[in-house]
Design goal:
37% of the residues lie in helices and 16% in strands.
Length: 360
Amino acid sequence: MSFPGSYRAGEVDFLLTRLQAQEFTSVHDKERLIQSGQRHYSQMLSPESLPSPRYMAVFEDACRANNARMAADCLRLAGLIAARRSGAIAVVSLARAGTPVGVVVARLLREVLEREAVHYSVSIVRDRGIDGAALRHILAQGHAPESIVFVDGWTGKGVIARELALSVSAFNAAQGTGIDNGLYVLSDLAGAAAVAASGDDYLIPSSILNATVSGLVSRTVLDERIGPNDFHGCVYYGEFAPHDQSQRFADALVALAQAGGEVPHAAPLDAKAAAERSRAYLEGAMARYSIADVNLIKPGIGEATRVLLRRVPRLLVLRRPGAPDVRHLEVLAEEKQVPVAVDPLLPYHAVSLIRSASDA
């Protein structure tokens, strides 16, 4: 059964199965189980905690510095979607980093561009694909396959964009549908998205927080409790409600976008150059840091933040320490005692390396 999380009714329908938190797996145990192949990352959740007051102050600073840019990119993305879709639009965000973006984009489609738009948030899992039950549910509500557009926050290496393309193509082949398998994002660092508002690695403020900026919903779960006709699962952190920023953050972005006037022009992005930059950096980093598994390298501010929040970091690499866009990463690294290296030639603002379980 769908639910709106901590957002107002009508902002989003999470097509997720609400699970009881049975057993959380510690971050270190999760890393060991993932890297040994004993468990898939989607089968485990680590406990989330509220951010420290110091970290929340950094979030507020990030909002003051970059909300206007994120709002403009959301409006730009809404305009790109409107130009590529006729009739009603079904915005389908990828939970959970895509959820705040989907909330804002759907509202801008309705309130600024005067388009009929609804918003669903669904799960996609690396190596497991898009939630087919969720897609079938969306189609069963009467939404035309061609009305669906998949939205996320950013690309890092492009893994989820490729997973989306493969799994939606497989879904189309099995169901006889023609859903567009492209990903629409605010920032495409890997040249892997179908459409992007920007190609820059900048601090998207919602990347700083976890559940408290994403409707109080956990990372999605696909374990033995999820049957073939069930939506992928999640845990709802209702106990975090007094600290929730989700609706306030979305409302602030919508107000900024509406105050900006006309839909900003989207400059053409050089996806080929971005893909080549990503490939070259990953190859060089694997050699430089003696890494055999590319999944242990997370480029870009958004992905680097995820590592520091919920994985076991080996190293944080920054292009320019002290820069406003990486202040939150420096706070996290200090709080978690993660070493920091400086690389002035880094093609991104930040990269996090995950510690190999064999080195733990």
